[in-house]
Structures are given as C-alpha cells and as structure tokens.
C-alpha cells in the first residue's frame, strides 16, 4: 500500500511539475503576508521532552519489575472484556508498547514540525497551525500515557477494571479533539 501510494503521488508530482510552468502567475492577494512568519505558532517543541521522560520511566519500571510480569500475558479480549488469548512473556512482547511509544512520538514530532514549518498564506492559518500543533503535542502525550498504562497493567500494578476505561477514554478524547479541531480550526476553503 505504501509503495502504491508513493508511486501515485510521485506520478502526479511529476505531472504537476510539468504543468506548472504553463500556468499563469497567481495575482498577489491582500491576505498574503510577505516575508517570513514572525513569532511562534503553538506550543514550543521542548514539550516533547516530557514524552521522552515518560518513555524512559516506563522502560526503567518494566526492567525493574520484569520478574513481576506473569509468564502468560493477555493480548486479546472478547466483547465482555474477558481474556481469550495469551502469549508467553518475553522482552519483545513486554517492550512492544515502548516501541510503539517511540515510533508514535516520532510520527507526532514529524507532523508537529510539518505544521509549524508550513507556509503562512492566509491570516487564519496562524490559528489553524497553532491549534493543530497544540493537538500534536497533546495527542502524542495522551498516546504515550495510554501505552504506559498498558505496560503498567502487564506488571499488575494496575487493575484491568481501571485500565480498560482509561484506555477507551483516552482514545475517545483524542478522536473527539481531532474532530472538533477539524470543524473549528478548518481553513476557510475547507469549511
């Protein structure tokens, strides 16, 4: 799927590159702001350091309590929240949430960087960029917390009756936050 998407995007990139010289120049608009953008948009990127601290604390906690993790770990629950599949304990299984935390955080950092570096063409882009860069930091923080909760439940430090509502609440909040921002902070053309 990734290769197909890459091929399609590259094909249309080349097509647009060949068509672009033939298009007339766009007239200067009054909403365009000349020169580089002044001021920061959204929360500063050093907020992602909190994510790194949480990930490191998760790693240390799991390593220190590895013996407390049961030999069989639940990996699947049915619709009534009873476990219907287990796997044997191993470092690779126990650290899957940590790997997901790192990769997810890197993805959120990339998206955050892309939003902050985007060209400001319309005045309301500032509120759009600010809202979505704040979302990237908040959503990635909640994502890291969610996976830390999953890891702590492996060590049996958290009860499953606590873990499931927390995980579902975090997922619901992130989805609602994204949907709200899509409506509220959408650019003029997308509304």
- Helix proportion range: 55-70%
Which band does the percent of strand residues land in? Answer: 5-15%
Summed over residues and divided by their number, the pLDDT gives a mean of 81
- Total beta-strand segments: 2
Account of the protein in words:
The protein has one domain. The protein has 191 residues and is mostly helical. Helices cover 61% and strands 6% of the residues. The protein has a two-stranded antiparallel ribbon. Mean pLDDT is 81; it is low at 29-38. The longest helix is centred in the C-terminal third of the chain and has 30 residues, at 125-154. The protein has helices at 2-19, 48-64, 91-94, 96-117, 125-154, 160-184; strands at 72-77, 83-88. Helix 5 (125-154) runs antiparallel to helix 6 (160-184).
Short summary of the structure?
The protein is mainly α and about 190 residues long. The chain has one domain (about 40-190). It contains six helices and two strands.
List keywords for this structure.
mainly alpha, elongated, 61% helix, 191 residues
Secondary structure: elements and pairs:
Layout: H1 2-19, H2 48-64, E1 72-77, E2 83-88, H3 91-94, H4 96-117, H5 125-154, H6 160-184
Antiparallel strand pairs: 1-2
Helix pairs in contact: 2-4, 2-5, 4-5, 5-6
């Amino acid at each position: 799927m990734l290769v197909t998407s890459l091929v399609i995007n590259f094909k249309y990139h080349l097509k647009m590159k060949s068509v672009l010289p033939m298009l007339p120049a766009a007239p200067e608009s009054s909403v365009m702001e000349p020169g580089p953008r002044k001021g920061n948009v959204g929360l500063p990127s050093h907020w992602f350091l909190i994510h790194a601290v949480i990930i490191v604390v998760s790693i240390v906690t799991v390593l220190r309590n590895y013996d407390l993790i049961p030999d069989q770990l639940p990996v699947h629950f049915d619709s009534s929240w009873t476990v219907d599949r287990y796997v044997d304990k191993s470092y690779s299984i126990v650290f899957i949430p940590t790997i997901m935390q790192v990769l997810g955080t890197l993805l959120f950092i990339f998206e955050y960087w892309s939003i902050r570096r985007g060209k400001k063409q319309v005045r309301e882009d500032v509120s759009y960029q600010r809202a979505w860069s704040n979302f990237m930091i908040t959503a990635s923080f909640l994502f890291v917390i969610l996976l830390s909760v999953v890891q702590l439940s492996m060590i049996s430090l958290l009860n499953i009756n606590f873990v499931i509502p927390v995980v579902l609440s975090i997922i619901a909040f992130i989805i609602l936050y994204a949907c709200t921002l899509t409506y509220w902070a959408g650019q003029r053309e997308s509304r």
